[in-house]
Each structure stands twice: as C-alpha cells, then as structure tokens.
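Summary for the funding panel

The consortium committed to producing paired sequence-structure records for every protein in the target list. Below we show the first two records in order, beginning with the earlier of the two.
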Amino acid sequence: MTETDQIQEPGGARAGATPSRRAVLGWGGAGLALGAAAAGGAVAVATGGDERAAGQAAGGAVEFHGAHQAGIATPVQDRLHFAAFDVRTGDRAEFVRLLKDWTAAARRMTAGKAVGDGAYGGLAEAPPDDTGEALGLPPSRLTLTIGFGPSLFGKFGLAGNRPAALADLPKFPGDNLDASRSGGDLCVQACADDPQVAVHAIRNLARIGFGKVAIRWSQLGFGKTSSTTPGSQTPRNLFGFKDGTRNIAGTETGRLERFVWVGEGDGGPDDAWMAGGSYLVARRIRMNIETWDRTSLQEQEDVFGRDKGEGAPAGKAKEHDEPFLKAMKPDAHVRLAHPDANGGITVLRRGYSFTDGTDGLGRLDAGLFFLAYQRDVREGFIPLQRRLAAHDALNEYIQHVGSAVFAIPPGVRDANDWWGRTLLSEEA
C-alpha cells in the first residue's frame, strides 16, 4: 500500500464513442463524463461531481481506440476483475491470431455488444459465441487493458524486445508472496461499474483463449481506493481512511507524460514498441483487519499521518491542506511515501479493495489489490517500496502476498489495429 497523497490517478478518459441505440434509449448505470482533452486522445473527466451520474448522461461506453489503452488514465470504475494468464501455445502465428481475436471481442464488449454472433440465434448444435450473462446490461464504462509479463519474453523469439524498464521486482522486507497468486505471461484488467459486466469480459476472453492460454490467477475488486474526478468525494480503504486525496487531475497531461506514459526515446531501439504504453505493478496486499480494528484511534491516525474523520494531514484542518511532513511521526505512511520525501517519485494508482471470505481461522481474507502505473518500474515502484517496506508503521497491519509486473503496450489506434501489434507484427 502506498501513500494516498503520493500516488496519482488522473481523471482522464478517452474520447467518448457515439452512444449506441440502447444508450440513447436511456440505460441506467455509469459511463463516461464529458470533459477537457487529455493526453493521447484521452478525455479528462472534470465534472466536479459524481462519476456515475455523469456516466448515465453519456451512455456508459468508454472509447476502446486511442493512443493509450483505456483503463489507465480513465476515471476509475466501481468494480474490477483482474486475470493473469499463462501462454500454452508455442506457435507464434496462433498467439498473434489469439491477440487479434481478443481485440475484436474487447472492441465489442466495451461498446456493450455481445461477442461474435451473440449468445443465441445461431446453430442449435454449436455453442454460442457469447456466454450471455451480460445480455441486456449497459457497457457500464467497461475498459479492458492488456499487459505482457516478463516471462512472455522468453517465448516466440521476443527475448531481445524485453524493455529494461520491465524490471523483475526484488524481494522486499516483509513479503510473503504466494506463487499461485503471482506472475503471469499476460494480464487483462477489466474495470466496470457492474461486476457482472467485468466478470463476463474476462470469462469470454478466457473462453476464446481455451487451449492457447490458461488463467494463472485472478482477483475481484470493489470500492475503488482513489478518487479520479475533481470535486468528488475521496473514497476510503478498508482501514477506514481516505485514500487518494491529492490525485492528479486528468487535465494535468504534463504529469501523465512525465510519470506514466512511455516516451518515444525511452530505452533502446528494441523498446520502441512500448512508446505510448506504461508499466504496471500489481500487488495483492492482505490487511490484518482484526488487529487494526482493536488498535486505538490515536495510533491509527499516527500510522497514516492523517486524521480519520476529515482526512486532514497531521497538524492541519482540512483534507486538501498541504502536508507538513515533520509534524508526522517518522514512520508515518504519508511522511515516508510523499514525493517530497522520495525525490519526487510519483506513480498512478488504480487500486481496489477485496474480501475473499475467511482464511480458515475466522479472520477476513481482505485487503487492497494495488495497481500502479508508471513510466519505468526502476524509477517508480521499486525505490518507493524499498523505503516503505523498511520503515513504514503500516507494515504491522499489512502484508504483500501476491505480486506481478507487466508491460502495458500502447493503445489500439483504429479498427484495423490489435493488441500487441507494435511488438508482434512482422512489420514492427
């Protein structure tokens, strides 16, 4: 878990698609809000109000095409289904065909359409193309974001194309990583305002990939842990503290370019395929809920460096007051993770809370599924987490139990483009 002041998440989203017929008829649910232009064809949501209400007016669809993938700078939706996949095929052409098929399916699902020829009406003797559980539901601002893990570059002759910025994460103090919840050749992040829409998307991509890829692990999430729209209420994490107080606004395109998007000149010539992309660190962070719930309010506030009610930094009156770091305890989370204490390190976060039942001992298996995007993992998450893992008072109440890192390629430009083209096409 990383400091709520420090980790940035813009309100940027892509230019909205023309509303579908069903959208015009007035679907309920959330979707895109109108806003100012953001980097790479994204549209910044700056409604100054509730994202879901703004989404209703826009029809609930997020544009799939753009210079950057949706689901990064897009306003954070309410629900998450994240899946990591292992590649089973050794045939490069078959893998490329899969990515093209996935792109076609993602293009339809994010527009609120069924996969292929739909869930019914086809040959009775054959399975339908779509599983059907999202029939009649709006797009719910569904975004699908793909990433390539380090292990993928050991396949298909891609070893020379692995970017140096896609660094293996070191073992940090306190890590207790479960191999069955870590790593993966591929990832797909599905975010939506309806959990059924997000689950439907991952289910159908896994179905299309049967025999070529297999799900390695997955995570459901709820309750976005960062606010993305200026003026909206800051959400709270499962410890009850406001999270994401000082997020970057979607109109701050300069900060996106500086901290999130990979530049044309980043890395060597073999890394040019990543221009316009980003790098994702995913961490499953278990919260020791029962221990925290028996901790005094004063200690809770000292651990974070903020008060629990207003969210104001220590010694200040209002949530958005500029923190005075020396007023906090030396091991306070905010003090250790703030950019002023870390040479300006800034990452963009899209984390979600999770609860996965109990652990067999009557304790909640709950916490934060941390998602952080950055321009270079070596200059973002790694140095920041080294500092936090060694000194943060919050470590008494959390433990990192799952981990993965992925290269997120640039966006799908148009109807003829496909996920991973810049890496895998012969022309590239």
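The next record, for a separate protein in the list, is shown here:
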Amino acid sequence: MIQDASIAPNLAPDRTGLLSVRRFFLISAFFAAAGRNAYYIGAIWMLAVSGNNAGSIALFLALGSISEFLASAPAGHLVDRFDRQSLCMVSDWIRIAILLMTSAALVLQEPDYVLYGSVILFAVADRLYLTASSAMVPSIARSENLIAFNSLAYVAMQSGNMLAAVATGWLLSAKPGMACFLFAAGPFAISVLSMFRTALRYRILPGDRCRPAQVPRETSEGKETSRVPSCLVLNYVLIYVMGMLISALISKFVLEDLQGTSLEFGMLEFYWAVGAIISMLILTFRRFSKVDGRATPIIVLLAGVAMTAFYPTRNLDIASALMALLGAGYNLSRVLIDVEIQRLVSSTKLGRAKGWVHVACMGFSLLVYAGLCVSGDSLTSSAVFLAFGSGMIAVIVAGYGFHLVKNRASSHRRMPI
C-alpha cells in the first residue's frame, strides 16, 4: 500500500538532525565491525596455532553458524516488533560481557572449549545487531540514496575490519592471546555510545512510522511483497559462503601454503578490507545509483575465478591481490542484494525477510562446515578454495544457460502460428 506523504505525519527530524543520525550510525557500524573482526581473527589464530587440525577452526565457525541459523528468524521478528536502536545497544552490551568472560576464562582453560562456548553466545548477539542495524537503513536514507548510504555503511564496517586486522595481528604477535579480546571490548563500548546518541536524536520505530514509507518496486504495480526472489537468495548464499570459507581457512593457508606468521595473516585480512572499501566508495558515486541486483551474478562469477586462483598461489603479494578482489566482490554483492531487498520488501516486514535470507545462508554454510570438519587435514586450504570457486562458476554459468533456454522457449510460445 502506498502511503501519501502529504497525509502521513512528518515525525522525522530536519535535514541537519538526520545527517547527525547517519553520522552516529556509521560510527557505531565502524566500531562494532572492529570489535567483531578482532574477536574472530583472534579466536581463529589461537585455534590455528594450538596444534589442532583445520577441523577445529571449522567446528568453531560451525558452532557460530548454528547459533546464527537458529537466531536469524527470531532476530528478524524482534527487529520488526521492538525499537531497533535499543536492540543494537543490548547486543553491544552482551558482546562486551562475552569478551570479558572469554578473556578471564582463557587464563584458566585451554582455548578450544572456551572459544567454542563463547562463539555460540557471541554469534546470537552479533546476528541481532546486524539484523537491527540493517533494518534501520531505509528509515534514515532516502530511497534514491539507498545504494550510496548502504555503501557508506559497508565502508564504515570494512574500515573497522581493517583497523581490527592490523591491530589484532600486532597484538597476537606481541601479547598473550586474551589481549585481543580485551581490545575488542573497547570498540563495542564506543558503538554503544554512538547508537545511544542516534536513539536520542531519532527514535526508529519497528514499522518506521516516523517517516513516509518507501515504495517497494512491486508496490508500484499494486502488489506488495514480503518474498525475496530465489536468484537473489542463491547469489547471496554463494557469496556469503565464499566469505565464510575465507574466514575459516585463510589462517591455515598462511601457515601451510605461504609459511607465514600472524602479521601476514593480519595483512591478508587488511587487503580484504582495502578491496571492500575501494569498491564501496565507487558505489557512492551518483552514476551508480541505478545499479541493481542484476549485476550480482557477474560479480559472483568473477569471485569464483579469484577463489580458484588461490590453488597455485604461493606468493604473499598475489594472495594479497586476490584477497582485495574477493573483498571487493563480497561487499559489492552484499550491498547490491541488500538494496534490492530493501526496495522489494515493505519496511514492516524487512527484519523477517532479512532473517529468512540469512537462514538460507547459514543452512548451506553448515553443510560446508560439516564437510570441513569431516575432512580435517585431508584437503589443503587452497584445494577447498579451488573446489568451491569452481562450483560458484558452474552454478552461475548453469543459471545463465537455464535463463537463456527459458527465454527461447517463451519466445517460441509467443510466435504466431
């Protein structure tokens, strides 16, 4: 249903106030991403150097994925029902408490079981924050600026990832392992304060009643939708699992294939963030405001090619370039798909739609994690990258072939007899 802006009450702040809201939102996204990346980089490296096989890292990430899988749909319902800024702040406080408890427990216990337990709680709180913050975007950005503001939000997150990659890599080489978890608690505290300032200036209600509703694309034809096209979901799943595999195996790739250290591991994470930031800055240009989700299959195809290129790579510079390309492709795809979902789905159902899309991502991720846990060290990291990259290429090529055959069949049916 299209809501007339001249009839709906205008409860939004003025232009200056809204700019301030966006600024604090981006600051919160930056520091929340820094804390999140510091936690995962520190945990994965500690598991990698503990002497366990690759299955231990896969198990760690699988436990997080199971938690996200179970939490995604409930988080979406909470986001559509309760105040979104408050949910973000609650999530940050929970993550701070988890990090402090993890640091204390690492003094007394081996890292494996401490990290296995902490990631379950951390992933649930993290999913709540990500769903709530993503659902806030259409409320503080105009529909014609969705791509630009989503890109700025991803720039903020990847800048936080870049900061965390460098700082955590240095901490892991200079201090005990628990130092990186204490470091990660600081950015989450700043994220809480930033989101609190956002809430003071602009209260975003679950149904976005504080602004005239955005018009979904189908709504212009009289049909509002709460479903996301299957092709978008498939592309999202492929690019999401690609990022998950990089997170799970790049530390082993550094140790085994490159014979590197934690500093080089941090540098590869740094280049991933650099590629993401450059690609997001490009999307903020006005000429790219009309780009939509139809470009994502090409990006996913190119990401698959870059994944396969890890197999023969034994050079840090080439690996850094590949990480930059994958970081760019990963974030370009996610931004374009996020914007497409925000355009297609009504704001009152956006949290649930995002939740169910993430359920699909987590479901497939769990299958991949299960395979990694079972295979252990029988497959090298580069071999896994080759296999999955080839699969990405095959799926996209098959999709284009199916679309071409379908269009030809449709054109034949329309031909006059």
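Regarding this second record: Residues 1-14, 207-225 have pLDDT under 50 and may be disordered. The CA atoms of residues 113 and 230 lie 38 Å apart.
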